[in-house]
Amino acid sequence: MDTLTPTLTLTTLLPLAMFAIVSSITPGPNNVMLTASGATFGYRRTLPHMLGISAGGALMLLLVGAGLGTAFSTWPLLYTLLQIAGGIYLLWLAWKISQAGGIQEGRTHGKPFSFWQAAAFQWVNPKAWIMTVGIVAAYTPRESFVANLLLATLVLAMVNFPCISVWTLFGSAVGRALRTPQALRWFNRSMAFLLLLSLYPIARELFAHGA
Question: Which residues cross the membrane (predicted)?
Fold first, then answer.
């Protein structure tokens, strides 16, 4: 069989697209951070952050699909260490978000995530791993796998950016509506709390392995 010809059909592409949309637009570390960034820095300054998420997620899907997941199966400790590092990093991010001010303050103090920071963050983002593994396992046929993986990556890249933009636009609108620094600080603290809640899957898996 020609491995350069994708075998995904309309009946399989639609479920893949729906899975990518649902995974991209539902709450998670990326979207919580984008909401806080939009409120603090505005949409335009958060644009590199959004592009980094979409590009980083697409690259992650390609590499995991190409066989990086085998390394984690061979060395489970490597994946555990990655989870721990991700948890610590998310704790630090939650603290930074809780201390953020408003849009005007954000323009003079601090700066949003860069493209490369956002792309690298996907590797310690538990939701990104769930989405990636789900696409590879359930929506990428084994026949003509390389071509199907490339097509799945294209689908993810196409739907991810519009979905995460919704959260940035929402945060930007909130940032303009909450006029006082104190009100915006409380909003950012609530975003930080949601980010802490996103640590639950990591903690549950680590404790399960520890038990």
Answer: 6-26, 47-71, 77-95, 145-174, 186-203
